[in-house]
Amino acid sequence: MLKRIKLCHSRQLVDIQELQNALNVEVLDLQGCTRLQRFIDTSRFHHLRVINLSGCTKIKSFPKVPPNIEELYLKQTGIRSIPSVTLSSKDNSFTYDHGGHKFLDMDDSSESIMVYLENLKVLDLSHCVDLEDIQVIPKNLNKLYLGGTSIQELPSLVHLSELVVLDLENCVQLQKIPLRLSTLTSLTVLNLSGCSELEDIGDLNLPRNLEELYLAGTAIQEVPSSIKYLSELAY
Which contacts (CB < 8 Å, 24+ apart) does range 150-159 have? Predict the structure, then answer.
């Protein structure tokens, strides 16, 4: 009946296989466990809502998480790619393929990651310095942190109507971000500070409810005139 497991900053922890039987756990916090090399398969943990592996630098593979996960913190891990996830039409089980760079390959036997992780609200991949590509983003996210990664561009964001925070700070290889940001009707914080290759934001159509806009350390040559329409902008 264990509900919360908090072993954060246990720097000698190398193995958590004994946790395989804690099927009722709701929160699993292993932040800062720098010697932990592998994470258990939690896809059967139907009550699990929060996983925190931030600072687990030896974790190289994206974790197998349950579809009902709400918060996933992977900051400063060694994750290199996002796996494809295929849903079996026979038994509704999920198959992970770490050879790919996206959550899911679309075909007749699979569903989109936007469905697979439809409850995910917070995804933190910041400072995963080896992460170069993310192609599909869960549709119900509230907060997305990709700062300090090696991504060069983002996929379409038009479906992220609930996104409140988009943090891309210090994505030094990011050269462009998707147009039509105005479709992000809930976005209040956009952080592009330190995106030193980003030269132009004039065509982004920034959402009018934006409250905070960070552009320090970018390569922009002028602030777009459309900024005058951001009536909620405070910073």
Answer: 153/177, 154/178, 157/181, 157/183, 157/184, 158/183, 159/114
Encoded tokens for 202: 């004039």
- Predicted confidence pLDDT, tens digits, the chain (235 residues): 899 999 999 999 999 999 989 999 999 999 999 999 999 989 889 999 999 999 999 999 888 888 889 999 999 999 988 765 555 555 555 555 554 434 433 343 333 444 468 899 999 999 999 998 887 788 899 999 999 999 988 888 888 999 999 999 999 999 888 777 888 999 999 999 999 998 877 667 788 899 999 999 999 888 877 788 899 999 9
pTM comes to 0.87
